[in-house]
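Quick one, T. Sequence first:
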Amino acid sequence: MGLQDTAAARPIHPFALRVMHRLNVVAIVTLISSGWEIYDASPFLPFTFPGWMTIGGWIGGTIAWHLAAIWLLMLNGVTYLSWGCATGHLRRRILAVTPYGVLHDTWAAMRFRLPHQIGVYNSVQRLLYFGVIAVGIIAVLTGFAVWKPVPLWPLSGLFRGFFISRVIHFIAMTAIVEFILVHVLLVALVPWVVPPMITGGRLRRLFDDIARSRPPKAAWPSACTRCSCDPDTLRHQ
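Structure tokens:
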């Protein structure tokens, strides 16, 4: 099978990734809205969240929603990390980031010169995705420290007690909300990334776009015989 045929057969977003993405949306939205209701029951800042932004209706129902969503998030997260390691998705798409790449792509984005290719993560995206995964893990750990501070006293002690655990949990939740807002804004600015996340898409169109953008002497696949090319992103290494 040639390089173009391989690209045509490979989806932009695999089915497993699309399913986990949808489950994450359900889990995180439920966690945020129920978490705000739990916060409102005992706020430690001079504000509360309006009722229409929360779910549960009362503290017992809200905690039930929150616990159900956290188990879904944890199961989905472990599945994603396992799948990502087994398939190389994490290595190629998330962890392949360097300080130079982040600075270069950030400067390009500030000048509105950062190219966007469907199925290819730039360095800023990779850093943000890595960051939100790390923040999500912190949110889960501090959530357990707040939920069971006595049975899980080593975990609570790691975050300096119940109150500090709660503050860190709130900060982590706020960071995730900010990530979601930026993510939705970027999707609104680049709406053609939505269909591939729903249907999976195919890389042939991406392949053709890249091929047309290159000079004739560097056309695919002959240029790839002289370098190591990542078949998942079609980016020269």
